Amino acid sequence: MQDDLLKVLLTEEEIQQRVAELGQEISRDYKGKDLVAICILKGAMHFMADLTRHIPIPLTIDFMAISSYGVGTKTSGVVRILQDLDASISHRHVLIVEDIVDTGLTLNYLIDNLESRRPASIKIATLLDKPARRAVNVTTDYNGFTIPDEFVVGYGLDYNELYRNLPYIGVLKPEVYK
Ligand code: 5GP
Questions:
Q1: Is pLDDT of 20 > 80?
Q2: Which of 1, 6, 80, 100 is the pocket-test mutation for ligand 1 (most atoms within 8 Å of CB)?
Q3: What's the pTM?
């Protein structure tokens, strides 16, 4: 798998340290609040698992699976819910846990969708932010790393469902997806 990478963008240590910092920040902000952390599958699975272990306050966890990319590296703008939440989020404080914000279309759709369920609040934690290709205005509340406009894989992020199991984040060689 390593041979398919152009370079490592974020090492395992860098990711773990930043995720711990975000966890502390989130714990301070949500102390005494009824928090539900929503993991957006599949890309945010590692981020969610590590992040919530750095949030030592009561919270519940739920999952939502959506598809924004088909096969390939370009966003379609069409978002589909593949798996919905188990529980109601009405009057609860929602933290969306996302892997990466690119055009922002996915998050935009998601926020609209979740807002209609009347939560007490919605905030966004994203591990990566790729502002170069933003097509809609979305504001993230907790941002791990701002990265350049390159297609990245690892730590949950895939290309054609592969590379999610890398413990770090790397840039894929363009010839791999051409
Ligand atoms: P957006 O709707 O913001 O354009 O895209 C969000 C989704 O696209 C992310 O949740 C992620 O699944 C996928 N995505 C965007 N950029 C990348 C990238 O560089 N690498 C990978 N693996 N997925 C990406």
A1: yes
A2: 100
A3: 0.94
